[in-house]
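We modelled the chain as a single entity of 430 amino acids. Its sequence is:
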Amino acid sequence: MIKRLQRKFVVIAAVCLLIVEFTIIGGINGVNIYQTNKNADDLLNIIIENDGRFPEFDPKGMKHDKPQDNSDSASPPESKKPDKHRGFNEETKYQTRYFVVYADSNGEITKVDTGHVAAVSSSQAIEYGKSVLDSGKTAGTSGNYRYKTGDTDKGKIIVFMDCRSDSATKNRFLLVSCAIGAAGYILVCLLIIIFSKRAIRPVVESFEKQKQFITDAGHEIKTPLAIISANTEVLEMVSEPNQWTVSIKNQITRLNGLLKELLSLAKMEEEKPALTMADFNISDAVYDAASPFTTLAETKGKKLTIDVANGLSYHGDEGAIRQLVSILTENAVKYADEDGEIIVKLFTSHNGKETDLEVSNTCKEPPQGDLTKLFDRFYRDDSSRSRSKGEKKGGYGIGLSIAQAIVRSHKSKISCKAENGMMIFTAQLK
């Protein structure tokens, strides 16, 4: 159980860390891509606004430093307008590689300007322009070039800007950030694994104290129970047995059964339970363990059907598997509806890698909510797992916990579900 808790802690922490890193790296790269594309679009807008050329650089940011004195002017001073050329300098026009395609109002290309790029000829520029005009798009990417269209008095202008350098920078940034994130993720996961024992130490100590308490209390309670039992027998010898002595003996039997199951559960939940693992005929084991309940079911007006595939072999503790079958079958007989049916099945799973033990019983009113709670210690559902029409159905509330511990000790899974008026418990034995 401790190892399972440690693994769960490590997995949860690793998944949370992965989500955080993915969010951070994705966010950083998203912002980087957005900003790079925005800068390219700003450059394209500048070229379009200046009819296919860069304007002369204004060191003052293309705006006036002093507001105009004309207080009667209806428009605000230019100094209050946003600076759309911020971030560009006198070298920007020489560093930017672009070409321009001009078209008339009918969509016919009239002129191209390839004087600011070396990788594209005039004929290639015309092909690029025709492709954009045919697509009807106003902005986008074509090959290594980012383009944008604009309207002029004579028709359309399309500016293509070489973005190979920007694309390479974005890709390098993505690879570097992912590599650093992966290295950091692996390092933190290693630290989580190393310090996970310390993190779950309080839970481990609490579990160990609980297990020790169950063991100690079990041994301590046995003595007074034995004395009470002996005294009760003496009272029955001195006088006739009566309802009081019978009640005392019944409660002693009940407490002895509870102690036995508590000690069995504590033993099963040990890190390495003392199991004798060997190959055995599980078909015979399941049939032998379930068949004694046939008579019990008949006395309660219920029908028990045993459907076991012949000749199945399994590697595990035969005694523990027999106990598992007994617990599930007894549980099904106890909680099946009146005149209901109990079915015990053993078969090979569809993938052929597991042996499935399925115990089901009719149940018109199945427990509500999370059915996995049925495997909790001392859990009882008020509606269907309690007294019904005067019949005492209450057990100790730990039988299914023991069944779960047995299955887990074999590194397998057990589950339950309610469908078609049946409560079905399935142990997938690996």
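As a brief sanity check on the tokenised model: Residues 62-83, 383-392 have pLDDT under 50 and may be disordered. The chain has ten helices and twelve strands.
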